[in-house]
Structures are given as structure tokens and as C-alpha cells.
Amino acid sequence: MATPSAAIGSKLAEPEVLFRSFEARMVWLPVLVAGTLLYAAAYLDLFRAVATTDGAALEPVCALIWAWLIWRHRYSFCRLDVTPSGLLLGWMLLAIGLPLYAVGRSQDFFQLEIGSQLLVFPGVILILLGFKGLRNLWFPIAFLIFLIPVPGSVLNEILVPLKETVSSIVAQGLYPLGIPITRDGVVLYVGNYQLLIADACSGLNSMIALSAIGVLYVYMSERRSWIPAAILLAAVIPIAFAANLVRVAGLVLVTYLFGDAAGQSFHDVASYAEIGLVFFSFFLFDFVLRLIFRSVDGPTVRAARE
Amino acid sequence: MNARQHGLLVGAIMILALVAAGLLVPRVRVAANPIVLDTMLPKQFGNWTQEAGSIAQVPADIEESTETSAARPVYDQVVMRTYRNIASGASIMLVVAYGRQQKQEFKIHRPNLCYYGQGFYVTDEKSSRLLLNGSTAVSAESFLAINRGRQEFVTYWIRIGHRISNDPWATRWFLLREALAGRVPDGMLVRASSLVNRVGEIQQSSQSQRMFLSDLYAALPPTGRHMLAGSQGDLM
Predict the structure, then answer these.
(1) How many domains does chain B have?
(2) Considering A4, A30, A102, B214, which has the largest number of Cβ atoms within 10 A of its Cβ?
(3) What is the chain B residue with the closest CA to A83?
């Protein structure tokens, strides 16, 4: 009896697995073709729509990660298991998910269109792979959440306080250092310059991006203890928030010291530097956590499991 | 049925959903031939007359950067004017912004967000019933926007399709129902505002803005009234 991870490794060449994979390919072919037709159009539209806003790379990157996750789990798709209970729940999910897709797609309602995957994908898995498949593939299913774009109405509810907090902390942090800075809502005044904290400066995109990568990283590192994993995940948002503060404060300082043009070129570079800073801090924090929790969650434990 | 047949069935039903999505795309635009706002809005009406050299106004976009996404501007027409009351001397800024297509993620921006995005504090947000020309009531919103050196009292409403939109979720629901019936509604922002210097002037500004909007409505032909406030029967 093969354990879920066994097929990934050495048992690949067994004739039975090869046969099963051939059979599975025939089963999955129509689903794969139809599913690609369904969602390729949706993602193309979505990428086009977000391409005009800042942080546009977020969506395609999450989509690529998801595709890679599916590839990594490809052998799970060979374990065909059609069961009555799986069929019942699976078809129910499709019966809700596909109409939502049709409505979302026809009305340019990306949240429904892309979000319908959260029902359609597990639905298909339940039909063809049963509850065992659902258990094996829970992570790629859950990761789909990161692909759903945040709706504009919700976005504004988050962005308004976030921008307010960012500008307030930056102003209060720089003023004691002798920088003549004041603020009006989301506008910072430093020297003769006026800086507007735009939506992109809120740091929301880097928060979502790092959350996605952080969740992926914790999943991949197969920790035995959930405590360091939970601490690491809890640190994701504060790290992204702090990195964004550094960026905005840097932008204010560069503008104040070297003028508007320098500030503008710093602005463009800083967005990339921020992503670097975010990931560096994240992995540094992870390293510290590993040192602290070495007894329960060290590399030795991982090596023993592999 | 075996796995292979289930696979075929799932694929077939997915294609069906794709076809259904294609069939559900709304094809009718409510406003096929909109009026030119600049000529529709009178330069003079009642006691109000348009002033040249108007005050710098807060644009109807949330961020200046929105202009770079010129591929799909939210507004098809925007009119910005300043009017003065001959009798009282009160000065009112008017912004009327029109979009032919209102969709879920592509709608007229709420002015409180526009002011906020331009660095104003938005306070004192209120909704009230505004009677236009003594006959039509719209649900209007008002707020006070403050930044250094400028305090502006704002009264506005947004029309989407035939109804006044004051609740974002109700608006989404309405847009969805309209769209599934094959219609893409148009939308309009009507925004009056004036600068206030003292807290005591807010009440007075509010009154003259309400009077201004009512007078403007009264001065329009039926089609213009419809453009501004939707159909009478469906309001409130």
C-alpha cells in the first residue's frame, strides 16, 4: 500500500504506476482541455485589467506558483478513485461553481470568475479522485485564495486606514530627527515638497505577495512543529508593513535631501528594493526561528523524514 | 459510469459553462446616444450664473495616476464649472461626471475617496433626502473635506441606471441584476461644493448647495432631469 508521498520518489518506474498514469491521462485530458479554455480566458482578462495598476506582477506570479504546485503534485492525479460520496459532493460543488463562473465571466466580475475555481477545482478532484485526492491536494486548493483579486469596495476599506497609518508613522518617525515634515491625511509635506501616499505606497501588494510566498514556504519546509510555523506566518504582515515604512521614509528623505527628480528615480528603484528587503527579513526571521526551535524543528528532523 | 466517462462529462459541462458565459454577456447599453453634458447644463439659470476663472477643483478621479490607465477612462464626459448666485453672492463649484458603462469593478468613484486620495480629511459624512424642484427626492450625501488652507463642504449623489446609488452592495446587486437582464446601465456623479472659512458657514453652504442643485434640476428639460437623477418613480 503506497503512502501519498511514495509515488513521487522511487516507485515511479513501476509498471503499475505507468499504467495508472496512462489511464489517468485519458481521464484528465478532457477536463484539462476544458478547464484551460475556461480559465485561460479569465486570467488573460484579469492580467490585462491589473496590468495598468501598480504591483501588477503579483497575480501572474501567484498563478505561476499555483501551476508549479500542480506539477509538483502530478502523481496525485493518477490515483483515480470514483466514490459515491465524492461524486455527490463533487457534482454539488460544480453545480454551484460553474454558474458562478458564467455570471462572473459575463459581467466582468473577476472575483466570481476567478473565485469559482475554489469550488470547481475541488469539485473535479472529488469526482475523479475522491476524498483521498482532496486530502492530498488540499494545499493547491487552498492556495487558489491568493489568486482571487481583492474587490474594489473591500480594497478601499483596507487602503484608507493603511495609507493613513503609513503616512502618520513616517511623519511622526522623521520629525524628531529634525526633518521638517508635516502631514495632511495622506499627503506629506517635507521642506518645499509635497508627497502623496498613493494606493501603491500602502504596501498592501507586498503584504499579499509575501503572505502567498510565506504560506508556500511554510508548507514546503514540512515542519514538524506548528509553533514556529505559526510564528513565521504571523510575522508575514508586520514584516511587509515595516519594509514599506522603510521605503516611504526613504522616499521622503531622498526627496528632502536631493530634490524631486532624485525622489522620483528612488521611487522606481525602491519598489523592487522593498521586495528584496521583505524576503531578506522573512528568511532571516525564519533562520532565527530555526535556531531557537532547533530541538523540535531542526534540519536533522527534516533529513530523517526524507 | 467509469472514471473516463466522468472525466468526459466534467469537460463537457465546463464547456457548457463557457458557452453560457458567452450568452450572458449583456449586449444592450442603456445610454446608446448620450447628451453632450457641456451643452445640456445651462450656463445661466434662476439666480445662478457661470463664473469665468473658476477655483481649482478636486478632480473626480481617486488618484492622478488613474489618468495613465487611459485605455479605459471611467468617465466619458466631465464638466467642471463654478456658478455664482447673483442675489446672495454665494459661489458653488459643480462637477458632473458621466460614464456610459457601469460595471462591477468599473464604476463612478465616490467623491469622499477622491478627496481623501488628494490629501483631504473627510469628516461629517451624512446622508439626507434632497428635494429637487419640489417634486423629485434623491438620497444625497454630504461631507466636509479639510486640508491645510482649504475646507470644502460637498453635497453629491451618484445615479446608476435609473436609481440613486448610496449603498455599494446594493449597487453591485443592482448592476448584477441589470447585467443578467442584458443591460449595462450608465452612471452619473453630480457634485456641488463650496469653500467654507468658518464652521458657522457650513449650514449656509449646505443650504445654498441644495438650492443650487434643485434650481439646476428645475432648469433642465425632462431628458436632462432624467440624466441627473434617474426616473422619478424609482427613487427612494
Answers:
(1) 1
(2) A102
(3) B3
Same domain (yes/no): A121, A161: no
Q: Do the domain assignments include residue B167? A: yes
User: CB B2 to CB A110 under 8 A?
Assistant: no
Q: Which residue has the higher pLDDT, B160 or B34?
A: B160
- Measured between alpha carbons, how far is residue B212 from residues A126, A208, B49, B219 in Å? 62, 46, 11, 11
- Contacts made by residues B163-166, CB under 8 angstroms, sequence distance 24+: B163/B230, B163/B234, B163/B235, B164/B138, B164/B139, B164/B229, B164/B230, B164/B235, B164/B236, B166/B127, B166/B139, B166/B141
Indicate the number of domains in chain A. Answer: 2
**List of chain B residues whose C-beta atoms are within 8 Å of the C-beta of residue A105:** 18, 21, 24
Which of A97, A113, A147 delimits the end of a domain?
A147
Q: Which residues of B touch A31 (CB under 8 A)?
A: 7, 10-11, 14
Q: Helix A226-234 vs helix A260-292: angle between axes, to the nearest 10 degrees?
A: 170
pLDDT at B4: 86
State pLDDT tens for residues B120-165.
888 888 998 888 887 888 889 999 998 877 899 999 999 988 888 8
- For this complex, say whether ipTM is above 0.85: no
Regarding whether A180 and A82 lie in a shared domain, the answer is no
Contact list in B for residue A53 (CB cut-off 8 A) is: 69
Global pTM reads 0.74
Domain boundary pick from A99, A118, A147: A147
CB contact under 8 A, A152 and B105: yes
B146 CA to chain A: closest CA distance, Å? 9
- Record the cell numbers describing residue A181, joined without a space: 515634515
User: Is A201 in CB contact (< 8 Å) with chain B?
Assistant: no
Exposure b/e, B206-215, CB count within 10 A at least 16 = b? bebbbbbbbb
Q: Which of A223, A247, A294, A305 is catalytic?
A: A247
How far A104 CA sits from the closest chain B CA (Å)?
Answer: 8
Dihedral of CA A291/A295/A300/A303: which sign?
Answer: negative
User: Is A173 domain-assigned?
Assistant: yes
User: What is the percentage of chain A residues whose pLDDT exceeds 70?
Assistant: 84
Asked if residue B55 is part of any domain, the answer here is yes
Residue A104 counted as domain residue: yes
Count of A–B CB contacts within 8 Å?
A: 141
Residue partners of B207: CB distance under 8 A and separation at least 6: none
Same domain? For A173 and A298 the reply is yes
Closest Cα in chain A, distance from residue B145 (Å):
11
Give the structural domain span for A30: 6-147
Whether residue A102 and residue B21 make contact (CB cut-off 8 A), yes or no, is yes
**What mean pLDDT value characterizes chain B?**
82
Considering only CB atoms, which chain A residues are within 8 Å of B176?
Answer: 103, 107, 109
Which of B4, B10, B15 lies closest to A127 in CB terms? Answer: B10
pLDDT per residue as tens digits for the range A93-140:
999 999 999 998 988 788 889 999 999 999 999 999 999 999 999 999
Task: Say whether pLDDT at A202 is over 90.
Answer: no
